[in-house]
Amino acid sequence: MATNSIKLLAPDVNRGLAELVAKRLGLKLTDTKLKRDPTGEVSFSIQESVRDQDIFIITQIDSGVVNDRVLELLVMINACKTASARRITSVLPNFPYARQDRKDKSRAPITAKLMADMLTTAGCDHVVTMDLHASQIQGFFDVPVDNLYAEPSVVRYIREHINFNEAIIISPDAGGAKRAAALADRLDLNFALIHKERARANEVSKMVLVGDVTDKICIIVDDMADTCGTLAKAAEVLLDNRAQSVIAIVTHGVLSGKAIQNINNSKLDSVVCTNTVPFEEKMKSCPKLAVIDVSAVLAESIRRLHNGESISYLFKHSPL
Amino acid sequence: MNNLMVFGGSSHPSLVNKICANLGIKPSQTKLGKFSNGETSISIGESVREKDVYVIQSGCGHVNDNFMELLILLNACKTASASRVTAVMPYFCYSRQPDIPYTAKGAPLISKPKDSYTFESSPGTPVSSVVTTQRPKSPAENAGSNLTVLENVRSPKLPVLEHPSPVKSLGNGELHKSPSQSRIPMVPERKENSSELGSLFNANNAGYKLWVAQAGTLIANLLTTAGADHVITMDLHDSQFQGFFDIPVDNLYCKPIAHNYIQYNIPEYKEAVIVSPDAGGAKRAASLADALEISFALIHKEKRSQLPKGPPDASLTSGGGATVSSKPLISNMSSLSLTSQEMKLSSSSSKYVQTTMLVGDVRNKTCIMVDDLVDTSYTITRAAKLLKDQGATKVYALITHGVFSGDALNRVAQSAIDKIIVTNTVPQEKTVKFLGKDRVHVLDVSSIFGESIRRIHNGESISMLFEHGW
């Protein structure tokens, strides 16, 4: 790969994933300066020329300061655009506002669409993301979106760490049934579903288990763990139905609010997240957390994108 | 007010209420909040179908959160079939992204880290003898107030340029250590990232490598993308900003209420002087001075390359460098009868001198500084000091947007500013509490915004609001 025409950029915070990706690609992150006002306005400068280069901006959006990260990303994209970059690809493993993807009540905003418009307006030519909450979000964009899957990495993790002959895949809600079923197919495992009636966002109500989990290791699979209230409740329901043990594997470990408390108090054996969201700090206060590294998938997709190769191989296989 | 709806963001609810009171309607129902992961959540409690919607959000507080909230509100109204959506931003955030600091020859200026010099870095005021005779004998008496620090400037008087004595550099060092320095703002670049950029230049030792994000167009495009059909704002930092938009932007002025305030609240305002604390705001200040028919002065900050190419230390050791560098300045200025204060940047790596010039006469006069924005307050506190130093009796500061970030309020409290007049485009409760009611006066702009919303809604002209006496 010609190193003189590709540049990897990352904001000054949450560089962990970006550095892993850069290491895999044998590249260095480009020198940038991001400066914040006391009020939070950002100004940004790049210390190298980006003219006619293929730019990849790797951003991890952590919980709590989403809007700051988004504005920083937009400013970075725009800076590259006005500095005559050839192509700007935004690598956004966890897409912000992905859950506000429809008008679920009157006059509700479709913020995911707004995010898509904003990224394109800032000058983004391509978006790489992972496990979108709803894959229809790809249609909100006028530019190509590559929605990568954490599934191959998750499959490998299950094969390596869990006695999966006794395991069963659980979807914690009806919406995630398809994702869980696909994973169960890949591993040739059984599949069960928990049906819940959600009263309000971030709140859990009544749960009903569909399927048999007696003496099984239950693997709850979801795309996002926020306050972990759902997961904790689901674990209780499963154990009440005579499950052997319960672990959860989620792609985006946002882990906001009382998540750590909820996990520590829950009957879950462990909660495994990919490193799309930075949560190293939280791992210190919660021994139940474990991590799946997806930097290889992202690095390989960047390599393939830059060289104009197909990405679809990565949908089924996880690179080492 | 048929079909008119006003929504308020969470940045400045009191202004929203005042504007609505002006329009005789109630702010429409919204629920603003955040999801636990920090994403903004809003819901609109009333139907907006075929309505004329105004969303008021000031660019203050936590800027990015508030800006995102505005975008989401605009978008929610737009997607809920509002007939027209107008963004009302009393203070427009991201409006003063700095230009890249270039010299006339095209190379970027070399700036320095903030903490390496202070306002008083240069002891004497090397001015021509003509100017010296104009100086008041004892400005401290005129100044009256607590300006003991100014002694630092006056005591080492070295008016004769040709003989900069070693005392100069000695005084320099002492001043750096002196505890009385604490009251004096570090000098500094007002444009926030120029010093940062400066260190970059130094680090690379090559002026050319610079790519700075200019957020102006981006912010404009984001608003348009979110669905804004119209933008109302006040005293934009650059009026060129309007050109970044593809939709109409109404830039209101607080000049009429400022005019009113000066006329009725400043005693003998006809004798006062309007001062612009930097050259960029000269036009704004001059137009106010014209409207009031009073005189006008200008403070000009200038960074220019030091002319001698010799080793930078030479000036400090031999005492010759400062003289040489100031010569061309003086030759320019004495003909124009300017008063100048020149600050030679003290660190040995210094490549240019910073000059602050006062153009105009303020001796024994009340000064009214006019500026659009106070953020760090370096500019106005330093300007106030210069004005008192030049014999001004009283210094007012008339500011449209008082953002006062960081420890700006502390700096203002200890500065030579006698009274600060600020509008409520940004919430000012904290300012009033901190500085006391005697030193702060808050001008209410809600009537201007209310009237402009009424007129825009009714399709009337708003140019009348630009003039005095409506």
From TrEMBL, chain A:
Catalysis: reaction(s): D-ribose 5-phosphate + ATP = 5-phospho-alpha-D-ribose 1-diphosphate + AMP + H(+)
PROSITE patterns for the chain: PRPP_SYNTHASE
Example of a GO biological process term: ribonucleoside monophosphate biosynthetic process
Broad enzyme group: transferase
Keyword Heme among record annotations: no
EC number(s) given by UniProt: 2.7.6.1
One GO cellular component, as annotated: ribose phosphate diphosphokinase complex
Domain Ribose-phosphate pyrophosphokinase N-terminal: 6-123
Job of this protein: 5-phosphoribose 1-diphosphate synthase involved in nucleotide, histidine, and tryptophan biosynthesis. Active in heteromultimeric complexes with other 5-phosphoribose 1-diphosphate synthases (PRS2, PRS3, PRS4 and PRS5).
Name of the protein: ribose-phosphate diphosphokinase
Naturally occurring in which organism (per UniProt): Lachancea dasiensis
UniProtKB/TrEMBL annotation, chain B:
NCBIfam families: ribP_PPkin
Superkingdom field: Eukaryota
EC number: 2.7.6.1
GO BP term, pick one: 5-phosphoribose 1-diphosphate biosynthetic process
Low complexity compositional bias, start-end: 121-133
Organism of provenance: Lachancea dasiensis
Protein name: ribose-phosphate diphosphokinase
Catalytic reaction annotation: D-ribose 5-phosphate + ATP = 5-phospho-alpha-D-ribose 1-diphosphate + AMP + H(+)
Assigned GO CC terms: cytoophidium; cytoplasm; ribose phosphate diphosphokinase complex
Stretches assigned to the Ribose-phosphate pyrophosphokinase N-terminal domain: 4-98
InterPro entries: PRib_PP_synth_CS, Pribosyltran_N, PRTase-like, PRTase_dom, Rib-P_diPkinase
Function: 5-phosphoribose 1-diphosphate synthase involved in nucleotide, histidine, and tryptophan biosynthesis. Active in heteromultimeric complexes with other 5-phosphoribose 1-diphosphate synthases (PRS2, PRS3, PRS4 and PRS5).
Stretches for region Disordered: 116-144, 159-188
Annotated GO MF terms: ATP binding; kinase activity; magnesium ion binding; ribose phosphate diphosphokinase activity
SUPFAM superfamilies (alphabetical): PRTase-like (SSF53271)
Enzyme class of the recorded protein, top EC level: transferase
Protein family (similarity comment): Belongs to the ribose-phosphate pyrophosphokinase family.
One Pfam family cited in the UniProt record for this chain: Pribosyl_synth
UniProt KW Transmembrane keyword: no
Keywords: ATP-binding, Kinase, Magnesium, Metal-binding, Nucleotide biosynthesis, Nucleotide-binding, Transferase
Highest classification ranks of the organism: Eukaryota, Fungi, Dikarya, Ascomycota, Saccharomycotina
